[in-house]
Amino acid sequence: MEVTEQDKPKVQVIDSLQSWEFHVTQASNQNCPVVAHFTASWCMPSVAMIPVFEELAFSYQDVLFLSVDVDEVKEVATRMDVKAMPTFLLLKDGKTVDKVVGANPEEIKKRIDGLVRSNGVSVE
Question: Do you know which InterPro entries this protein is assigned to (predicted)?
Fold first, then answer.
């Protein structure tokens, strides 16, 4: 089966502090909300949330989804005060407006809905 552009996950993988700052700043400049998944390869609930997170990225076309491996990009996890995996941060204008700790797909979707509504973004 051929993978088309739209089949690819929309989740951007953050590999450095610079990459994090670039994406968050760009999203902020475009008034685009951000949802960041802080994950770790050794954390099974975190790994289990990856396909759920990718599915959410398809559902919310006007939201930027970022994935941050806390072991690979410790600076970002420290700066964002992430202490447990998985942690989902919802950002608006570059600032954290909500946080979900733990693998809870329904709660994360509910919070993203709230973020999208507060941002005036349409859900397709």
Answer: Thioredoxin-like_sf, Thioredoxin_domain, Thioredoxin_H-type-like
